[in-house]
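Subject: design request, 230 residues
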């Protein structure tokens, strides 16, 4: 006996529709949860990336600032060291100039002792004669020393001739040496083309150049950067 399906009544239709709606709603909720979970995961991942990148940027900026500060500090330190060195060098130079100035003042007093100065002039003349080794020489001194120079030349010629050498020494009065040479003589040969400067100022300058390293060591101590010593 066959059964014939009957049409659903309103209540049954409503019930089926509610089931379908509930199913669809459930599917939608689950899908929404999946979407939310996935979105949260992607958000967290992206957030972590941003935080990590920002941390890297902050660290790089910090390192740059640290390096800039280090460079600035090195420059400042170098500048201060150089400035300090220049001040030390300037102070040392001023001290050396003071020493040379005092030596110059002492040399200026040498001619005051006529007897000792006369002997000195003789020695300076003889030394110049020997150095030039010429038969004719011209001798110049300060105008204030003219008489002493003339006497010294006569004595120096006698001393020089004791070794069997001949010399004619002429004191040039027309062109005296300036007072700034402090004293002493300047002897020339071959019509003044060559000369020996034995003035007190010239001897001081020569001694200052030769003794400068030793004087520096005495006043300031030996430099740690110096590799060679005489």
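Subject: RE: design request

Done. Sequence follows.
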């Amino acid at each position: 006996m066959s059964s014939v399906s009957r049409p659903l009544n309103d209540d049954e239709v409503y019930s089926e529709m509610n089931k379908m709606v509930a199913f669809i709603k459930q599917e939608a909720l689950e899908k929404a949860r999946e979407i939310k979970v996935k979105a949260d995961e992607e958000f967290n991942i992206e957030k972590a990336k941003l935080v990590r990148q920002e941390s890297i940027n902050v660290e790089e900026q910090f390192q740059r600032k640290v390096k800039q500060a280090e460079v600035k500090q090195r420059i400042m330190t170098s500048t201060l060291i150089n400035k300090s060195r220049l001040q030390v060098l300037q102070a040392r130079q001023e001290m050396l100039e003071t020493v040379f100035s005092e030596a110059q003042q002492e040399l200026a007093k040498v001619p005051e002792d006529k007897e000792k100065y006369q002997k000195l002039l003789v020695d300076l003349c003889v030394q110049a004669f020997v150095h030039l080794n010429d038969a004719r020489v011209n001798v110049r001194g300060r105008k204030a020393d003219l008489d002493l120079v003339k006497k010294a030349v006569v004595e120096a010629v006698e001393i020089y001739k004791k070794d069997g050498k001949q010399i004619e020494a002429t004191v040039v009065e027309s062109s005296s040496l300036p007072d700034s040479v402090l004293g002493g003589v300047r002897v020339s040969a071959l019509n003044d083309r060559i000369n020996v400067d034995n003035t007190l100022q010239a001897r001081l300058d020569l001694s200052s150049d030769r003794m400068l390293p030793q004087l520096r060591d005495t006043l300031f101590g030996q430099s740690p950067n110096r590799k060679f010593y005489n």
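The two ends are 140 Å apart (CA to CA).
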